């Protein structure tokens, strides 16, 4: 992640103030200044910037031109435009051209810092999302020709172009996360953010802040305003993994967000509109959880517009040869090594196993065999290094 911020402002006094404010607030970032548009473009060509604060009216090249040229050079760099009196219409136009936000002169300190923090968070998310898309398109294909996995692929193709909510069910390690990525990748929101939340990994007392954000002072450690995952996913997709582990109080707020397309940050009474496609996944039987009083039935019906059940590997063992070949090539490429061949006897031995850990377990076993096995992986290698007895 780059850690440079550029201030583009032709008025030296305002530039000094902005640099000082940003230096104090973002100590891990190097803050630099350019005093005209042409200089700014030259600096952006020679260095990566996480964020650019750019005045609209400047000599040599105005802020709109800087924004357009900079987006061609560095599409992931976030821009916040600085508008003077009478520039409001132009500032709004820059938002359509790709600016993250705009602030008016003289800049309000809190407004400036909140916009900057949100822009930096969004920028990191876009980079992460692009890397994820590369991973999905390059190496995370949905491998298999079995009837069970073909049904999943057909379901994805049907639901992806819509905005319908999808509940993805299946055992641990079966590929629920991959299904969510593919629904996003094949849908109309693919250019926007894909934000993932593992509900089981976040303590119950923090999940609401994680999802909905908080305002400064909402609780002891809330030293600044922070946007939540719903805001970060605005315009894109929010994937709620392991939603069966979410607390009932958080479930109530998620239900409201889905019903009204609004969220409220912890400690605030201000509603924030969000446009988010929600995908959820669980390895639990949510109907049983509803009976036990651990999951809201109304939320279940909101989420389960479409249900995609991902089969366990034991239900699609005919796909194991294809998966072994895929993982062998993928792991070898990542390690800069030659893929190894698996003998038919080795493949048959692996097909006979009980794969309780599903796809995730198979991949780990293939990696272990590539490291420890002979040039051609034999059934003896499987017995020695991958025995499940």
| Beta strand count | 14
What is the CATH domain class of the largest domain? Alpha Beta
What is the CA-based Rg, rounded? 25 Å
For the record, the count of structural domains works out to 3
Oligomer: single chain
Q: Tell me the overall shape.
A: globular
Question: Which range best describes the helical content: under 10%, 10-25%, 25-40%, 40-55%, 55-70% or over 70%?
Answer: 40-55%
Q: What would the average pLDDT be, to the nearest integer?
A: 89
- Portion of residues in beta strands equals 15-25%
Unreliable stretches, pLDDT < 50, 5 or more residues? none
Fourth-level CATH superfamily of the largest domain: P-loop containing nucleotide triphosphate hydrolases
CATH topology of the largest domain: Rossmann fold
Order of helices and strands: EHEHEHEHEHHEHEHHEHEEEHHEHEHHEH
In the CATH hierarchy, what is the architecture of the largest domain at level 2?
Answer: 3-Layer(aba) Sandwich
What structural category characterises the helix and strand content? alpha/beta
Spatial ordering of strands, largest sheet? 2-1-3-4-5
Gap from first CA to last CA: 45 Å
- Biggest sheet layout: 5 strands, parallel
Helix count? 16
């Amino acid at each position: 992640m780059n850690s440079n911020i550029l201030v583009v402002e032709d008025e030296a006094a305002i530039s000094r103030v902005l640099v000082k404010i940003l230096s104090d607030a973002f100590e891990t970032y190097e803050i630099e200044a350019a005093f005209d548009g042409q200089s700014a473009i030259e600096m952006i060509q020679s260095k990566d910037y996480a964020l650019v604060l750019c005045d609209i009216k400047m000599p040599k090249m105005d802020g709109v031109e800087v924004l357009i040229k900079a987006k061609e050079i560095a599409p992931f760099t976030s821009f916040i435009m600085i508008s003077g009196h009478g520039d409001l219409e132009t500032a709004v136009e820059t938002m359509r051209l790709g600016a993250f936000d705009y602030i008016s002169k003289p800049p309000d300190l809190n407004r400036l810092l909140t916009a900057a923090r949100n822009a930096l968070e969004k920028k990191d998310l876009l980079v992460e999302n692009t890397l994820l898309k590369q991973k999905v398109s390059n190496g995370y294909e949905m491998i298999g020709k079995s009837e069970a996995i073909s049904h999943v692929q057909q379901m994805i193709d049907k639901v992806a172009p819509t905005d319908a909510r999808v509940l993805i069910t299946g055992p641990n390690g079966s590929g629920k996360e991959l299904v969510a990525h593919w629904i996003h990748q094949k849908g109309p929101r693919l250019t926007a953010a894909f934000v993932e939340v593992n509900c089981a990994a976040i303590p119950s007392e923090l999940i609401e802040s994680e999802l909905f954000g908080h305002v400064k002072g909402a609780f002891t450690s809330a030293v600044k305003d922070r946007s939540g995952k719903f805001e970060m996913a605005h315009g894109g997709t929010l994937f709620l993994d392991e939603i069966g582990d979410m607390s009932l109080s958080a479930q109530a707020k998620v239900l409201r967000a889905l019903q009204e397309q609004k969220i409220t940050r912890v400690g605030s009474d201000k509603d924030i509109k969000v446009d988010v496609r929600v995908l959820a996944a669980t390895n639990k039987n949510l109907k049983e959880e509803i009976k036990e009083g651990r999951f809201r039935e109304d939320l279940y019906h909101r989420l389960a517009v479409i249900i995609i059940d991902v089969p366990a590997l034991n239900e699609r063992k005919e796909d194991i040869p294809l998966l072994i070949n895929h993982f062998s090539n993928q792991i070898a490429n990542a390690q800069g090594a030659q893929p190894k061949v698996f003998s038919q006897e080795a493949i048959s031995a692996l097909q006979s196993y009980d794969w309780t850990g599903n796809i995730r377990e198979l991949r780990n076993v293939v990696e272990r065999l590539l490291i420890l096995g002979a040039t051609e992986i034999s059934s003896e290698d499987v017995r020695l290094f991958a025995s499940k007895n």
